[in-house]
Predict the 3D structure of the following.
Amino acid sequence: MSEKRQIALLILVVILIGSAGLFLTGGISGLTGGNEDVYVESYTANLYPNGTLEETFSYKIEESSKYRMLYRIWEAPLSWDKLGTPYVEPVSISPPPGTIPYTKDWRGQVSLLLTTQTSYTDAIRSLALRNEAGCYKPEKFVAGEYKIGYVFKVHPPLECDADYCHVNLKLAAEHLPYKQVTIAIHDSGGFVVQLFSHPPMDVRKDGDRWIVTGESPKDTLLEIEMLFKPEIVGVMDGFSREVSDVKGKTLSANSHYSTSYTLFSALRYALRAMIVLFPAMLVLIY
């Protein structure tokens, strides 16, 4: 094999390996809009001072007859009954037509909402994870758009001192891509002092609401961290404990998070750039 063919083959191999690397790390999907056959087109949430959380998921399914469940999972215990530790209480689910809304709580107990078709209970129990709420379609979904509304009451841990209370609301960790995220924290009582989003997103104040907008790639942490006035303890049904220097610890933790996030984001893009530029460097060197 001639030298020219050898270098051409080497460059081709490098391009293929680089393309595979970009695909596996999400670089190509980030540029093309993603290669998922099911994703959340938009996610909206409204959080109120008493802990009521209203969520709307707009799903897009690209392939028919593949999925029979659309759902969301909590890391905190999901329970219809009052617990002695922080938990999430389901209130209602607004399902797409022809689907069966359900919950599977922290004990593994399945509850069907808006239906008496208990024949599906065993199937849902075998498929669903603990702390899951969602909608089940026995004959599977056809391609299209589906909207699910949830109402929960969150009972979070509150870390408080004499001046502030800290609440960290983790909305999702392992999840589908959320292409558009809008979270509104309603604060007519003026309880919120400062707010942080993870990952960093756009945060603005609009009247008595804090608005957070952005996106959440697949399986990335989505959470809202809030500093409240101590009076929130009398409004939000959570589990408070005394912690010293709440504000200082919150600001320090978010400063470290922001620095680390910026560093790793820059490193990720630098590595992707190297993957793209390396074949061109080989051509120039040759």
Notes: Residues 28-33 have pLDDT under 50 and may be disordered. Residues 167 and 226 are 5 Å apart (CA to CA). The longest strand covers residues 144-155.
